[in-house]
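Practice problem: predict the structure.
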Amino acid sequence: MPSARNAFAAKRLHFGETAVILVTAMLFTAASAAASYATKVRCTTPTSGAKREWLYGSPYDVVPCYSDLMTMWHGRGLADHVFPYIHGGITPSGELFGGVVEYPVLSGLIMWFSSLGAHTDREFLWHSLVILLPFAFITTILLALMTRWWVLLWAATPPLMLYALHNWELPVVCAAVAGVAVMAWGGSADPATGLRRWSVRTTAIVAAIPLGVGFSLKIYPGLFVLPLMLYVLTRGEKTDRRPRGLDWAGAAYVALSAVVTVAVTQVPFMIAGYEGWKAAIDFQSKREANLSTNSIWYWGLRFLTGGETSTYNSIVDVASPLLIIGSFALACWLGWRVYRRDGVFPWLGVSAAMLAGFMVFHKVHSPQYTLWILPFFVLLRVRWWLIALYLVADAALDLTIFHLLMNYSATTRAWVLTGVNFGVWTHAVLLVALIFVFVRARPREPLASYLTGGVPPKGPLTRLAAADAAGARSWLGAPTLANRHVTLRPLVPADAEALGRVAGDPELYKWTGDLPRDTTAAAAWITAALSDPRRIPFAVLDAQGRLVGTTSFYDVDSANRSLAIGYTYYGPAAMGTAVNPAAKLLLCEYAFTVCDAVRIVWHTHAENARSRAAITRLGAVPEGELGKHRRFRGGWRTTAQFAIVDDDWPASRDLLAARLGARSDAR
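Answer:
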């Protein structure tokens, strides 16, 4: 096992890499926000009361300075500091008045709060930056902790700069990512026990709270409650201890958690000003798929209906919601197929697929919606060229659509129309494809390990620093081996409770040192075993599937094709049975015949006659004693070394197999 000093150094290196990632990502986030402000502030007015049309900026700008923030300031009562929804409504022609904004209540509340103390749209923009930036930083931190360097896809690519101050997307994105982070935290292994921190049901119930908050910001995070319910319904990750059947009550509790959260945020506004609250919903229902919506309806269906006719609007009003619902059903069906195949419902992938369906078929597709889907590119293993193509199309759309809106006429330059159509249709094709891709995509590390209660692999910098000691799993893998006597499978943190009950024989401690006698000690023991790059630990299960002990490959030397077998101990019930020879037969056969090992070594205490005799019965040849070879209870011990080489293995295998057969016949 690594020394305490080496273990501390490895732990310090891991936290050092995490700090480097966080600092780097936060700096990129700050730079993106600063660039966004510098871009948008060019279109503000330093004079109080100055009015502008909804679309403004220079037609010669490379990056458009347009922002919904200034449009809302001038057109939704923010300049007059009117509290939203309470005293307003909507006119028959669809115009909002009295402080009503077209977004859900929490977004309206953030907008109003940003307006306090502001007397110009420039001040309002600055206040908005101060209030929205923490949400960007929180999102960055959560993504960095769940995906390490992949967070730079969020923090260092153009969308954050283009859209951080384009609209109020950062709080809703933060709410969606927070829901995923709750699932990661609840599913991760508790260092003290090795078991998941919270049950599947509890984790999902808590995760539904930020998703419910997100619903009251911009609706779409509320969509993710459905796949979360299906995940709980199917009882989450596949484990040996997972109860059978469907958890209908758990799924209902998840839905109730989200509904209560939405009610807490929405009902006060409904009571205080129902007409104003309802006006925001009516505005969205009456909104038409016109040029400003960038949707496939305007750039596709419009040409088939002869323009924005009543027929066009009627088709959009019916087809859009039906196709959205259909895409949701398709995503859930695809996820259910994965569940039937793998035993785990891919709630994260289905959530992303539902969002893709919503974005492509909704009658509004604003450019800033890229911030919605970008975190899923970070969280899920999507092919790099799909991500790159999506971001290129996004940049093309954002850099052309506002030029088109400012100068939309028969003389509009061809490159503007080409850029808009390229962006709209590339996004549409990719979003349809992503409905299928997302469902099958696996989470990135370390999120994947957190969600399954495993120990995440080391980060790239940590792996490079420990490269000289790496190689055990790259050569030997982490197989599951079985015969009629035992099954050997990779040891996992969730085995801590069972392993803590195994080491109950005081005789074990005479020769092996301190073994874990409870769950907490076993969890630490497993963590140390899994953290050693030259060791592959196994759980030993008897014929009835009970964990009766553990063993390991260790001192793995892939360059010389040699390894040791050790860190072995069993509970009293397994001693003297076929368990140990059957386990050694599996390990040796795998190492020699599958992995082409040339030498396998055993070490035992020089005075442990019982262990020396057992190793000899395996066919191993004594090679002498090694003075002060292992630390033992604060001192050093002499070990006896035995070995089998590949040339001698066939004879040893036949002898061991014959003894196992005789032992089975005797039973």
